[in-house]
Amino acid sequence: MDLLARYRAGDRERVWHELRQLGDRVREPELARQAQAVCDEMALRARHNIEVVVDRLTTHGYRFHDNDDEQTPIAPILTPTTHAAPLADWLTGRFGSVPITVSSWLRLVGDVWLVGTHPSWPGSAQADPLVLELEYSRYHDASAQDLYDGELDAWHDSTGDDPSAGCFVLPVAPDRLHKANISGGAPYGLRVPDGCAEGIFVAEVAMPFVDYLNQVFRSGGFPGPVQDEAGWCIRRELAEGLLPL
User: Fold this and answer.
1) 100-109 burial, b if ≥16 CB within 10 A, otherwise e?
2) pLDDT score for 74
């Protein structure tokens, strides 16, 4: 059985382990084809989960809005535009290599923003709602390329030639505090360059990207701290039946 067949059959953890073990050798032609298929399937399952969570939140009366005082309404899912695939190619050219999951997410999921206010859960904004904006398609006055270039220039200015600075983190989400309209830290994102299949997601801790997504969906889209019983109950309801990745 090839990797995709095994993934679909439920052997997901072992498939991701094998892809991680391959490192950047996953770019070899035959392996790359299989890895892309697995990453695409993962993205489709993630998209399904997000749509289910959004439908459930909407039924609850949840308001999706910006993370500022104005609380401007925001669409929770923006489907990929015609610029998504070219952006994936541009990212590869700009950074040398990006995880295969990035291409899959750009083409098949789009931008996701679950920040908002729940009528029965006052602390929902503090529970680190899922945000993943790779295309930044809601910002009509600037391109994602300009945003990433600006962030990279700022990173170079702040780190210089310091060998301890590590890798650049491609910003794709505000941190947990900024989501709650509180001054916080650096954005969440993915380390680049990275020629592996999955990539490392850097949030409050760094972990494999799919591990992060599974943690998010086990928590109904809200993987952060929950202080009240209402929040726990709502999270369990939101998470019920979501697909493991």
Assistant:
1) bbbbbbbbbb
2) 96
Mean pLDDT of 198-203: 97
Question: Cβ distance 76 to 66 under 8 Å?
Answer: no
Each residue of 142-187: pLDDT tens digit? Answer: 899 999 999 999 888 888 666 656 789 999 999 999 999 999 899 9
- Can you tell me whether residue 128 is helix, strand or coil? coil
The string over 165-203, giving b where at least 16 C-beta atoms fall within 10 Å of a residue's C-beta and e elsewhere, is eeebbbbbbbbbebbbbeeeeebbbbbbbbbbbbbbbbb
pLDDT digits (tens, 9 = 90+) for 62-74: 999 999 999 999 9
Residues of the chain with pLDDT > 90: what percent? Answer: 89
Contacts for 39 with CB less than 8 Å, ≥ 6 apart: 100, 101, 103, 104, 197, 198
CA 57/CA 27 separation, integer angstroms:
39
By C-alpha distance, which of 23, 131, 139 is closest to 77?
Answer: 131
CA 7 – CA 44 distance, rounded (Å): 13
Per residue in 111-130, pLDDT tens?
999 999 999 999 999 999 99
Answer for the pair 205, 191: CB distance below 8 angstroms, yes or no: no
Contacts of 128 (CB under 8 A, 6+ apart): 176, 179, 222, 223, 224, 225
Alpha helix stretches (DSSP H) within 68-143: 84-95, 100-108
